[in-house]
């Protein structure tokens, strides 16, 4: 499916035709618990504000509980001038994300709205800006959860009238302007989007490209890492054929630069350049193939999460996480449970990491302890509720936006379309048929589509797994069930399930997309007990041994890369402690076990 755009979500670049300026910094901020902002015309300019860093998640910056747990409307403002030489161009403000929904105003005029907190929002402010005087950019945000929006949850009103988020998912509901903000130009006649598909021949690779732009002539060049042009073509669509190509290989990335230019009436009017990796992805029988070679996935399901920062984008965290992942010899991660900031994928492209890119469809079971209930057979008729049509619309929109944003990254080799929904009803099957259909229609590369299944999704009951190209299982035998003194049961129960999957002869790869135990760095015990580091090691070893017995298991992504913040509860010790690394990114004992296995 081709998405027609009035603007462009392409990541900002600068060249002779395009310029941009970061709007990151200290913004003005105000909570609006009574939701009086629109009636009092806060869009014209905020008063009585406090300062707030952008990018930032507001929650952990405060010292009082009310502000940390604030749920409802909140407003941001920054003021800016337009550089003098930026006239005659389209002016865009581009947010990496606005969590979870936003209305954008420029100089008091509503520009656009957006639903969904983990994908870019672009506002065309050309008609609203003052060329010479100061401009006011005001954003109204809202972080309430509902069963009609992603990620799924509810919002509770306390007796005091305060709203609090009740996520049906297991991570803190961080919100705010959490990613980079750019003021940027787009030429009036511009390149607005492009897609690419690689195919491999005996000694050549062909990059088929297709550009969306204003009417004109497109030239496409592919340059190698030394800047030499290795292939060239003219036309909105065409082929760039590379002899003796350097392929983008797992953990041995090679990136070319794709340079696109637009000419109108003989004049060069726009250019766009980006890194491109030449690689193919396929699923064949029980194997996942990258460049026709089988790959076994080793790595983690992650979160965007850090002390104080919450979910705020920060290059140093990205860098440290990749260094830690490389140190353990990992080659893959899943962006559980939402698309991450775009810069994560840029680094994954450069480092040769495989990424399973996940849409924020998490919490599709009415439970605030979903993670524990999932293993115990709870069923809530989630897909039979009246909000499902609206939810489905939002889900499909976000699948489209995610694929639109990430389709040209070589690191992204699969789309994860959900995490742990109820899958045993015909309503669920109908719902997900449409989600998969949308994803397959949106991706010209036809990457494998999957989703992560919890324990209720068993071989004989799950109605959704046949839609998947490979099957991702989240399993906690030995933690939420068959744990502690019953640990011996875990092997029996786990293998019994795997035998059932095997007996189905699906000839599809299986990937363990989650498995792990909570543990505290302070806890050591011989013999092990739950929450000790020894227990985590024994649990992981048990899983590794079992994985090695089944040929259809083609990957192991541990839950979780690092400890992370969640809502409070008796099952959480200031967050989820299943990290192989601490929240500060230092290794727990298990990190050494994992490093050795993946060597
Ligand atoms: C799974 C969820 C994940 C949780 C994890 C856990 O997919 O979000 O954090 O369990 O309980 O059910 O640690």
Rg over CA atoms, rounded to whole Å, is 24 Å
Number of DSSP strand runs: 30
Query: Based on the structure given, which CATH architecture of the largest domain is correct?
Result: Alpha-Beta Barrel
Shape: globular
What structural class results from the helix and strand content?
A: alpha/beta
Biggest sheet, strands in spatial order?
23-24-25-26-27-28-29-30
CATH class of the largest domain: Alpha Beta
Number of domains: 3
- Percent range of helical residues: 10-25%
SS summary, helix count: 9
How many strands, what sense, and barrel or not for the largest sheet?
Answer: 8 strands, parallel, barrel
Report strand %. Answer: 25-35%
- CATH superfamily membership of the largest domain: Glycosidases
According to CATH, the fold-level topology of the largest domain is TIM Barrel
Q: Runs with pLDDT <50, length 5+?
A: 1-5
What compounds are bound to the protein?
beta-D-glucopyranuronic acid
The rounded distance between the terminal residues' Cα atoms is 41 Å
Q: What is the mean pLDDT?
A: 97
Keywords: Glycosidase, Hydrolase
EC number: 3.2.1.31
Domain Glycoside hydrolase family 2 immunoglobulin-like beta-sandwich: 191-279
GO molecular function, one term: carbohydrate binding
Brief overview:
The protein has 599 residues and is α/β, with parallel strands linked by helices. It has helices at 65-68, 315-327, 342-351, 370-373, 388-406, 426-442, 487-503, 533-547, 589-597; strands at 20-22, 25-32, 50-54, 73-80, 90-95, 101-106, 109-115, 121-124, 135-142, 153-157, 163-167, 181-186, 191-200, 204-213, 217-223, 229-234, 237-243, 256-264, 267-276, 281-284, 287-290, 293-294, 297-301, 332-334, 354-358, 412-419, 449-453, 471-474, 510-514, 553-559.
